[in-house]
């Protein structure tokens, strides 16, 4: 992966958000990756977790110029498979369940932020295919096995986004 | 014989899993059913045997957007059973935290969920293209309400600082100050929002509802009052069962509530407003007059205006309470547990939320009963659907479907909250 050289792509403050309910099976992958990233990113990268209403992301990303989300995806046949989605290139899948009065999903929050020109200019979503989202269940082994690889890819993504001198701190 | 059915298999922009079936035969609507298929959640059974002290935190989980309603109705009921009175500043702070809930819940519904219906947008994201300032205002209202919940409730979703007798901890003045600044901005946003929603195109439709709400002699109701209606009901909250009854219906996992002697009734903003208009601050009444809204509104589509007015009221009420705030006072009042029965009824954003608890000597719960607002409104929603659809039978199915969905969203229904009953027996005839 080559470093972004276009000035528009460079980010000085990056927000990494692990998304999902940590006690619902494979939905825990977001929080697990956030935990695995502790100490591996430069100081100007914030790591957070979020569950429930994703409209909160609109406040979370205020002041950041890049956003990296890690979230579980609905089963598509290969549990643990990692998809990297850049919403500029392809739309994020939207779940009608989230179009409710109580919770907006990641796609809705990002879509709204883009419509209001408040979203960070760089957004990457890592979606990891899940197998089970049962309440109270642990992650399935296939999804748990993806934690390290997703964390490595987030570290690499941050390195690519940041100016050379700031990214040099990565994995220092 | 012309028979047709219009179905909406999954309702968007409402909470929980519901669907709509409309049956039309020979130019008449023969059935309009809001089908609720969200699984029952058994909260009343979870509560049995648990301590009174756990109750506010358990019932908060019934709803992610109106946890305060459940917490408040629960603590009032428990305090009544124990013979405790919470007054003075603590009573005011309970109104304050309720203001936060109304602001975030109404703000979200008015702007993000309901307004797109009137303007032909698919959702708030699409609406943001033409009405960015309004959408940003809605987000700011939600944030201001959430911040009040966080500071006074400990966190914005499922707050943890509410207990029987008061609060676990009171915020410092420094913690409260930025909330007041947010609320001042929210108040200005609410004024603009009222003027904006008042200009939306409203269907010409009214229904002669039986409005039911709390009424208190001195204040627009949140936590306390008698249960009243515009058709003569005026009872203590403990007499709920004398006037109302919950019924099983086959198409819903939520119970339907009706006035025993008459049938469907309406709870929520339109009912509160009609039964308590004179108790609103003059500034809110003046704004209502400016936009041409009288003291009673029977057009359910205009509930969006009343919600916006209630946001303004909640901002003003919150600022008034914060202005008088003295953090040096105690966070709670002491009490002893005792066996007894207690009732609580408070005004959730969607309408009255009624609780009854029987408690043992040690404060453990013997039985619990919770009647949430959406189950009370369900028969009224169906009556609206039948009436609204019958005025437009010559229009396309898509137009009828859209208007019916909009009619359901007039109620801001929370299906997840309404689904809670214990008896799973379905009687078929």
Task: Please explain how this structure is put together.
The complex is a heterodimer of chains A (172) and B (429). By secondary structure, chain A is of the alpha/beta class. Chain A is built from 6 helices and 5 strands. Chain A has a single domain, classed as Rossmann fold (3-Layer(aba) Sandwich). Chain A has a 5-stranded mixed sheet with strand order 2-1-3-5-4. In chain A, helix 1 packs across helix 5. The longest helix of chain A has 15 residues. In chain B, the strands form 5 sheets. A 3-stranded antiparallel sheet of chain B has the order 1-2-3, covered by helices on one side. A 3-stranded antiparallel sheet of chain B has the order 6-7-8, covered by helices on one side. Chain B is globular, with a radius of gyration of 21 Å. Chain B has a single domain, classed as Orthogonal Bundle (Cytochrome-c3 Hydrogenase, chain B), CATH 1.10.645.10. Chain B is an alpha+beta fold and 429 residues long. Chain B has 14 helices and 13 strands. Helix content of chain B is 44%, strand content 16%. The chains are: A alpha/beta (172), B alpha+beta (429). At the A-B interface, helix 3 of A face helix 4, helix 5 and helix 6 of B.
Question: Secondary-structure blueprint of this entry?
Answer:
The complex is a heterodimer of chains A (172) and B (429).
Chain A: E1 14-19, H1 29-36, E2 45-50, H2 56-60, E3 66-73, E4 82-85, H3 106-115, E5 122-129, H4 141-144, H5 147-161, H6 164-167
Parallel strand pairs in A: 1-2, 1-3, 3-5
Antiparallel strand pairs in A: 4-5
Helix pairs in contact in A: 1-5
Chain B: E1 3-8, E2 18-25, E3 28-36, H1 43-47, H2 55-59, H3 67-82, H4 88-119, H5 124-130, H6 132-153, E4 162-163, E5 166-167, H7 173-198, E6 212-215, E7 226-229, E8 234-235, H8 240-243, E9 244-247, E10 256-259, H9 269-276, H10 282-290, H11 303-323, E11 340-348, E12 351-359, E13 365-371, H12 373-390, H13 397-409, H14 415-418
Antiparallel strand pairs in B: 1-2, 2-3, 4-5, 6-7, 7-8, 9-10, 11-12, 12-13
